[in-house]
Amino acid sequence: MSRQKIFYHTTPIYYVNDVPHVGHAYTTIAADAITRARRLRGHTAFFLTGTDEHGQNIERTAREKGVPPQEYCDGITARFKSLWARLGVEYDDFIRTTDQRHAHGVERFWELLARARTPDGRDAVYRDHYTGWYCPRCEGFKDDGELTQPGNLCIVHELPCEWTEEENYFFRLSAYEDWIRREIENDRIRIEPAGRRNEVLSVIRQGLKDFSVSRARVKWGIKVPGDPEHVLYVWVDALSNYITALGFADRGERYRSFWEGASERLHLMGKEIIRFHCLYWPAMLKAAGLPAPTRIFAHGWLTRGGKKLSKTTGNVIDADQLITAYGADAVRYFFLREGSFGQDWDYTDDAFVGRFDADLANDLGNLVSRALTMAIRYCDGRSPARPVPMPKTSGIEEELQNDASRAALVAEIYGRYEALDFSGALIRIWNLIGRLNQRIVARAPWEMAKDPARREELHDFLYRLIEGIRVVTVLFSPVMPNAACKIMGMLGVTEETARSLDWGLVDPGVSFGPVEPLFPRIRSKKHDSAQKATRNVESKGEKGGGEKMPDDQKSNTVATDSVDDRIDIAEFARIDLRVARIIRAERISGANRLLKLEVDLGNETRQIVAGIAEAYEPEQLAGRKIALVANLKPARLRGIESNGMLLAASVDGRPVLCTFDADVPVGMPIK
Ligand code: MSP
């Protein structure tokens, strides 16, 4: 176990000018998961979220609804809190910018700014006259480059900006340019992913301009101390939440531990607001003599049909409906597993259902129900005796029993959580689940059960299997806390054991069960076979659970299969496998994992869609020979027809193309 550290994790505070949506949920689920992961690792972590309730937009929305602003904010904030409760999000504090404690903290912060001197000895805050274009939606002033003509429209909102002349307070950001650049270059403020870091550095290279930190025209906000004609600019008000929530106003214990004393002060957010967090916020903190954030992670945007989510255009994903239909854990799993956290990705219902059935119902659900059903049947409903010596066989359950190899696996998975590579962590965990499923088939405990002389072997195997399940459950518990709790309940383990990654903690003799289905399939198996080709191409993670076992040992969520899963040569001969050559490859917009390939089969050219974009650049592929299933029924992936499927292995979820070790003619059958 690494040395205990203190972490501070935040989401943006969300505007209350609309009800919460799935985009907000995305950041919040991620913050909840990283917090839980760090606590499992033995660290102390504090997780803050909240709502941003001031500003002209909110004032206007409340007016349009005919309610006083505070009452309006109370209503929407309650909706945020209820969504987080439904999603199993456990924050340590929820800050509202209309809280008294926030106002007090902001006033203290302003006092520090108002008397601060820049590194070159000037006032950090000064009064000046502003004339220019102002976008009330962004609540910000716009340069010519940020306007579209005619009409002086804001490039973000495509709405007319207003010509404004005001006397305002300004913050001398320009004086902190060198300091910010150095902090970012030296990773004292770590901006991730790397692309975002470069983006911020390039903004700095173009020169930072001072920005106005007060508004004379806005009423709904925190008054500038000593100048009640002005309210604080909504972003100054909002950014301060990260310290006011910790009790900055009187520099309390929480503030000292989790801001000043934290090993990592991590702000999570969507990519559109990094400039405020990477430039304004650290510079203001520096001016006030306070520590800056140490890590800023900007995740990508969730789209649907390749388009921005928007209520106005009806392009929405209804988080509430998804939770009602499939449960919070499935929603959490899908959002963290499906996309790469730093990148934009496109949501589809089909992908949601596909992943639910394949990863949750099949791989995980079956593993748990098979193992427990067998343990209950073959060991009188109790945990078998703990096998002490390492067995001679070598499978994943032995790898997990061995302290050194388990520690390496755990470190790797935690490393991915720490890097906020949630899909990477889950792919690795599902690889373990797949291997445990495969071991059930390979060891065939139902055969051992027929022979009384193999009783010990059977009990040893089942003990290791159950412990293996417990360990992988601990590993995915940051993402699916409810399912983890349910599984631990079925295993009858103590709360402490349910969080531990040590081996051999399931107590012999403890009663198991009853076995409840965890994730009942959404689609029937029949529908699945029809879709299999599609899923194979789309799917990125390794799949276990495809193995077959006797009917009576299966989960009640799975349709029956026969014991002998082998096929005869005639069945294999029905598959037309051929050598093909890739002519060209291109990316598919909105589908991060898919490439569209044109392939030569000797006597014809085909278009196929393959899920290999994360492992291969399109330019690398032209000319390569691949193995292709040529008689697969066509399928449409993201609206593009695919006429065949290439063969690839999957190593930790990364596809690896099957190739030939000598030159082979295009079109040649593979037998
Ligand atoms: N109030 C400001 C933030 C102040 S923080 C000091 C704000 N609020 S917001 O309600 O607009 O929330 C923006 C955040 O919601 C994004 O940064 C992101 O975390 C999340 N998302 C909103 N829509 C999203 C997607 N479509 N996809 C992913 N996340 C997005 O900006």
Would you give an account of this structure?
This protein has 671 residues and is an alpha+beta fold. It has three domains: 6-316, HUPs (Rossmann fold); 344-499, Isoleucyl-tRNA Synthetase, Domain 1 (Orthogonal Bundle), CATH 1.10.730.10; 542-657, Nucleic acid-binding proteins (OB fold (Dihydrolipoamide Acetyltransferase, E2P)), CATH 2.40.50.140. It contains 22 helices and 27 strands. Strand 26 (648-651) and strand 27 (654-657) form a beta hairpin. It is globular and about 85 Å long. Mean pLDDT is 89; it is low at 530-564. Bound molecules: 5'-O-[(L-methionyl)-sulphamoyl]adenosine. 5'-O-[(L-methionyl)-sulphamoyl]adenosine is lined by residues 12-15, 23-24, 26-27, 52, 238-239, 241, 269-270, 273, 301-302, 309. Residues 12-15, 23-24, 26-27, 52, 238-239, 241, 269-270, 273, 301-302, 309 line the site of 5'-O-[(L-methionyl)-sulphamoyl]adenosine.
Key features of this structure:
671 residues, alpha+beta, Rossmann fold, Isoleucyl-tRNA Synthetase, Domain 1, OB fold (Dihydrolipoamide Acetyltransferase, E2P), six-stranded parallel beta sheet, five-stranded antiparallel beta sheet, 22 helices, 27 strands, 40% helix, globular, binds 5'-O-[(L-methionyl)-sulphamoyl]adenosine
Please report the number of helical segments.
Answer: 22
Mean model confidence by pLDDT: 89
Please summarize the sheet with the most strands: 6 strands, parallel
Unreliable residue stretches? 530-564
Name of the CATH architecture of the largest domain: 3-Layer(aba) Sandwich
Strand proportion? 15-25%
Helix content: 40-55%
- The CATH H-level homologous superfamily of the largest domain: HUPs
Query: Structural class of the secondary elements?
Result: alpha+beta
* Heteromolecules bound: 5'-O-[(L-methionyl)-sulphamoyl]adenosine
CATH topology of the largest domain: Rossmann fold
For the record, the count of structural domains works out to: 3
Q: Specify Rg, calculated over alpha carbons.
A: 28 Å
Shape: globular
Count of extended strands: 27
CATH class of the largest domain: Alpha Beta
Q: Distance between the terminal alpha carbons, to the nearest Å?
A: 50 Å
Strand order of the largest sheet: 3-2-1-14-15-9
